[in-house]
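In the design runs reported in the main text, the only information available to the sequence generator was the tokenized backbone. The following block is the verbatim input for one such run; it is reproduced so that readers can re-run the procedure and compare outputs position by position.
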């Protein structure tokens, strides 16, 4: 397999330059189209220099935000989607900086408001799509092992080093294994590791461009690890400690101080207090407005449901939600039965229990809209893992241990799994696993921009309507 070794800085600044130029181009083209094409202003009288300077400032500032985002992406290329929403923030900030500069210089009145507004709103989807394409392409190359931009060295006992190199899949994370050092070959007569040889090993690879050393060892030998790390403190190098185990499922999040002791943190609340407040505020405003504007539509739909089949317009079903607690979800009735969440049969494709109007509202996800009430009540969020009936939740939890981890955040009307095609019945293990992996990805990488992106995809992406029953 051909592999391309590249500099981390070169990739980061190449992305920043490309995105910065694209941002500038959007501003210039919007101004030219407005003045020359729509207003029929001669090119020589269209303030090309002023708009060019404004575009240059926008592009320069945006490229700075792009470089920061690219550095985060390259640190964790498997999570490329997490960085996409940052393009909207960077674009907004770049525009704000350029407009403020124009105001301070007394040039803001010379800029067309229509062309500026047009450039801003055209640039949002253009730059978002561009970043998505760039990051997705690079992530695919990294995951295939064809792009490696960080040299890494590994030291430890031979068996432990071989286990990390063979099972760690470093080559799928942008790392290129530069060198290894086995403790077995550098022990003295007393069995102690020769610190001088470790220092010499680090110095040699530093000179060749390596900046990372992974120390593989037993975490209970803290004194032994300290002796080795102390010998490396003279160098400007990153030193990591990886446990000598083949278990890659347990994640070490941080080292926290518990009194005078250091403790390894394995789990953390997925959202801090500020993030919870931001998400809740967005939910209340959006759900409240949604209920107000959709009220006439709800009334029409209620009449259609009543005319189509006997029974209530709404029905409530018990679902499992945040932290394992249960609640009753609101839905438009789309079936001839209204089963409880503890005893029910999962809906299948072509299910005869679905009414005529029910088949339409389920395909369009209209039956889920009353859950805006659950959002206002605080039982759900607009975006999050879809809650399942109690009986299904128990069954799925028995089939996949990580399934219950979805309950670490409020359930949602729509979610990352749904906009990626994991909707409807879960009859195979692959469907269960795929839905769970996408939900856990959302929990681990939440941002308000990701919520907005998921809502956008819910409305416009055809994947959202896949497997609807």
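Verbatim output:
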């Amino acid at each position: 397999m051909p592999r391309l070794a590249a500099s981390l800085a070169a990739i980061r600044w190449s992305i920043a330059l490309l995105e910065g130029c694209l941002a500038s181009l959007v501003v210039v083209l919007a101004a030219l189209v407005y003045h020359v094409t729509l207003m029929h202003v001669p090119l020589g009288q269209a303030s090309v220099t002023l708009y060019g300077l404004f575009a240059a400032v926008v592009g320069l500032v945006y490229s700075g935000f792009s470089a920061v985002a690219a550095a985060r992406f390259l640190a964790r290329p498997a999570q490329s989607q997490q960085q996409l929403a940052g393009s909207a923030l960077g674009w907004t900030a770049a525009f704000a900086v350029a407009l403020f500069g124009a105001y301070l210089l007394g040039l803001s009145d010379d800029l067309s408001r229509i062309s500026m507004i047009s450039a801003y709103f055209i640039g949002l989807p253009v730059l978002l799509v561009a970043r998505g394409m760039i990051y997705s392409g690079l992530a695919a190359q990294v995951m295939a092992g064809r792009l490696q931009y960080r040299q890494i060295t590994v030291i430890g006992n031979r068996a432990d080093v071989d286990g990390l190199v063979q099972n760690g899949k470093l080559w799928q994370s942008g790392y290129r294994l530069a060198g290894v050092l086995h403790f077995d070959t550098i022990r003295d007569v007393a069995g102690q590791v020769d610190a001088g040889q470790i220092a010499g090993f680090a110095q040699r690879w530093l000179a060749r461009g390596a900046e990372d050393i992974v120390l593989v060892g037993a975490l209970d030998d803290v004194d032994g690890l300290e002796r080795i790390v102390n010998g490396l403190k003279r160098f400007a190098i990153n030193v990591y400690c990886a446990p000598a185990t083949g278990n890659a499922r347990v994640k070490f999040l941080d080292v926290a101080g518990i009194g005078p002791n250091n403790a390894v943190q394995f789990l953390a609340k997925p959202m801090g207090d500020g993030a919870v407040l931001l998400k809740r505020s967005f939910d209340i405003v959006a759900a409240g407005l949604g209920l107000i504007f959709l009220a006439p539509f709800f009334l029409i739909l209620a009449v259609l449901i009543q005319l189509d089949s006997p029974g209530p317009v709404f029905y409530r079903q018990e679902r499992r939600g945040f932290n394992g607690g249960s609640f009753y979800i609101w839905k438009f009735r789309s079936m001839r039965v209204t089963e409880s969440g503890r005893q029910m049969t999962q809906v299948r494709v072509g299910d005869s229990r679905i009414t005529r109007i029910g088949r339409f509202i389920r395909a369009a996800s209209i039956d889920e809209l009353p859950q805006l009430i659950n959002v206002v009540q605080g039982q759900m969020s607009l975006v999050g893992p879809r809650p399942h009936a109690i009986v299904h939740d128990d069954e799925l939890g028995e089939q996949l241990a990580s399934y219950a981890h979805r309950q670490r955040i409020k359930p949602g009307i729509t979610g990352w799994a749904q906009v990626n095609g994991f909707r409807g019945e879960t009859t195979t293990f692959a469907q269960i696993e795929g839905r769970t992996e996408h939900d856990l990805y959302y929990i681990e990488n939440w941002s308000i921009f990701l919520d907005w992106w998921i809502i956008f995809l819910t409305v416009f992406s055809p994947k959202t309507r896949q497997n609807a029953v």
